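Is this the right way to post C-alpha cells for a design question? Let me know if I should format differently. Anyway, here goes:
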C-alpha cells in the first residue's frame, strides 16, 4: 500500500507545483486595466432640505397606514382591495419573485455542481485509425472488433474557485437588484394607495358639488316660474324669462357634467383596483375630512429612508458597484476543478467490474492575456452605467425635495386662501340674511330672497374647490414624504 501511495503523492505535488509555477508566470502577462473611469459623487446632505419659508402648522412624517387618519371605512376598504388585487401590484410582486430567482441562479453558479452521467455508445472501430488493433478479433488484448458497445456511468463534479471574488460580486449585484425590486413594490403600494384616495375624494367632492348645484337649481326653477308668470300677464318682457331659463339650463348642464365626472372617477377607480363591472362597492356620500397635513422640520437623509423609490435607486447604484467589482475580477486568473468517478468499459459485461473504474481530477486555470479590449470595454461600460445611475439618483433626490417643497408651499397658500374664502362667505351670507329678514317682514319678494342665496352658493362652491385642492395636496404631500415606508438609515454611497 505504501509503495503504491508514494508515487501518487509525488505526482500530486508535482501537479501543484506546476499550477503554482504557471500562475507566477501568467500573472504578469494577464490583461491590464486601462479604463476604470472616475466615479461620480453622491448628492450632498445640504441639498436634501427645504427652504426656511416652507412650513406647516403640524410637524411629522406620515404613519404606516396614513389613510386611517381620515376615519373613512369606505376609503379603507378600497385601498385594501387595491393593494390586494390591483394588476399593478401583481406585476410588482412577480418582479420581486423573478429577482429572487435570479439571485438563486447566480448563487448556484458558484456552488459545487454534481451530476450523474451515463452514456451508451455503439461504435465501429476503423482499421486505419489509432485503435486499429481493436478492429480485429484478438482476445488477448480484449479486442473482439470491429463493433463495440461502450458504456460509461458515474458522477461528475465541478467547482469554480472564486479567489478574486468575481462570483461573490455577481451574487451581491443580484441581491441588490432583488432589494431594489422590493423597494419598488413599496413604491407601487404608495402610488396605488394615494391614487385611490385622490379618486375617492374626487367622487366625494363631486357629490357635494351636485348638492350645491341642486340648491342653485331650485332657485333657478322658481325664478323661471316667476318670470314666466309675469311675462304671461304682461308685467315684464319675455327677455327676463329667457335669461332665467338660460341660467337654469346652464345649472342643469353643470349637474349632468358632474354626474358624468363621478362615472369617470368610478371607472378609473375600478381599473385601478382591478375590480370587475360589479366588483366595486357603492360609494356613499360623506363629508370631506378636515386637513391634517404635517411637514417635518428637516428632511436630510431621513427623506432617503422614507421614499421607497429613492431606496430602490440606491440599491440599483449599490448593485452597479458590485458589477464593477466583478468586471475588475475578470482581469485575473480563474480556477476550476472538475472530477469524475465511475465506470467505463468497451464491453457492457465488464462495465461494473473493479478494472473498469475511472477516476479523473482536472484542475483548470484560465488566464486572460490578449482579449482585444473586451475586458476593458466591459469595465468601462460597468463604470459608466454606475455613474449614470448615480446621476439619476441625485436628480431623483432633488425631484423628491422639490415635490415636498411644492406641495408644502401649495398647502400654505391654500390654507390662507381658505381662510379668506370663509370670511368672504360670511360677508356674502350677511347680505343674504338681510334680504331674508326683509322677506320675513314682507318688505321684499320671495324671488329676491331666493336669488340672494345664489351668491352664497357660488362662494360655497369656491370654498369646496379649495377644500378639495387642500385634500388633494395633502395626499400628494403624503406621497412626496414616502407614505408609511421606512427603511434603515442610508449609509454613504462609496463607489469602488
Amino acid at each position: 500500500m505504501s509503495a503504491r501511495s508514494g508515487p501518487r503523492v509525488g505526482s500530486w505535488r508535482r501537479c501543484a507545483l506546476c499550477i503554482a509555477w504557471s500562475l507566477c508566470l501568467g500573472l504578469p502577462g494577464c490583461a491590464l486595466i486601462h479604463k476604470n473611469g472616475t466615479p461620480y459623487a453622491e448628492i450632498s446632505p445640504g441639498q436634501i432640505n427645504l427652504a426656511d419659508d416652507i412650513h406647516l402648522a403640524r410637524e411629522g412624517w406620515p404613519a404606516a397606514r396614513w389613510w386611517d387618519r381620515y376615519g373613512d371605512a369606505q376609503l379603507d376598504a378600497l385601498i385594501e382591495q387595491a393593494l390586494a388585487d390591483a394588476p399593478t401590484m401583481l406585476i410588482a410582486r412577480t418582479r420581486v419573485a423573478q429577482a429572487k430567482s435570479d439571485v438563486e441562479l447566480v448563487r448556484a453558479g458558484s456552488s459545487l455542481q454534481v451530476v450523474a452521467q451515463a452514456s451508451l455508445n455503439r461504435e465501429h472501430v476503423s482499421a486505419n485509425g489509432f485503435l486499429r488493433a481493436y478492429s480485429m478479433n484478438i482476445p488477448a488484448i480484449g479486442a473482439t472488433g470491429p463493433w463495440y458497445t461502450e458504456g460509461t456511468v458515474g458522477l461528475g463534479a465541478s467547482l469554480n474557485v472564486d479567489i478574486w471574488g468575481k462570483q461573490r460580486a455577481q451574487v451581491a449585484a443580484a441581491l441588490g437588484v432583488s432589494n431594489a425590486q422590493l423597494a419598488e413594490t413599496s413604491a407601487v403600494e404608495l402610488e396605488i394607495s394615494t391614487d385611490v384616495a385622490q379618486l375617492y375624494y374626487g367622487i366625494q367632492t363631486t357629490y357635494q358639488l351636485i348638492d350645491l348645484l341642486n340648491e342653485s337649481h331650485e332657485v333657478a326653477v322658481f325664478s323661471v316660474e316667476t318670470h314666466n308668470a309675469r311675462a304671461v300677464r304682461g308685467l315684464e318682457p319675455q327677455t327676463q324669462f329667457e335669461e332665467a331659463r338660460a341660467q337654469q339650463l346652464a345649472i342643469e348642464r353643470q349637474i349632468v357634467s358632474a354626474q358624468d365626472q363621478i362615472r369617470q372617477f368610478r371607472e378609473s377607480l375600478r381599473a385601478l383596483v382591478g375590480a370587475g363591472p360589479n366588483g366595486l362597492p357603492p360609494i356613499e356620500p360623506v363629508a370631506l375630512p378636515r386637513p391634517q397635513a404635517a411637514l417635518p422640520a428637516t428632511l436630510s437623509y431621513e427623506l432617503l429612508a422614507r421614499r421607497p423609490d429613492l431606496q430602490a435607486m440606491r440599491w440599483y447604484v449599490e448593485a452597479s458597484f458590485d458589477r464593477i467589482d466583478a468586471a475588475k475580477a475578470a482581469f485575473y486568473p480563474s480556477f476550476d476543478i472538475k472530477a469524475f468517478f465511475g465506470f467505463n468499459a468497451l464491453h457492457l459485461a465488464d462495465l461494473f467490474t473493479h478494472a473498469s473504474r475511472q477516476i479523473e481530477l482536472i484542475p483548470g486555470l484560465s488566464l486572460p492575456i490578449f482579449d482585444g479590449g473586451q475586458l476593458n470595454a466591459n469595465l468601462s461600460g460597468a463604470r459608466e452605467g454606475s455613474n449614470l445611475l448615480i446621476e439619476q439618483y441625485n436628480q431623483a433626490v432633488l425631484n423628491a425635495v422639490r415635490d415636498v417643497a411644492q406641495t408644502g408651499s401649495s398647502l400654505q397658500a391654500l390654507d390662507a386662501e381658505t381662510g379668506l374664502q370663509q370670511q368672504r362667505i360670511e360677508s356674502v351670507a350677511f347680505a343674504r340674511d338681510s334680504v331674508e329678514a326683509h322677506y320675513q317682514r314682507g318688505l321684499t319678494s320671495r324671488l329676491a330672497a331666493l336669488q340672494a342665496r345664489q351668491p352664497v352658493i357660488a362662494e360655497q362652491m369656491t370654498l369646496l374647490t379649495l377644500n378639495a385642492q387642500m385634500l388633494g395636496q395633502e395626499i400628494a404631500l403624503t406621497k412626496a414624504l414616502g407614505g408609511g415606508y421606512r427603511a434603515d438609515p442610508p449609509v454613504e454611497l462609496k463607489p469602488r
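Format looks fine. Someone answered above. Worth noting: The CA atoms of residues 128 and 135 lie 9 Å apart. The mean pLDDT is 88.
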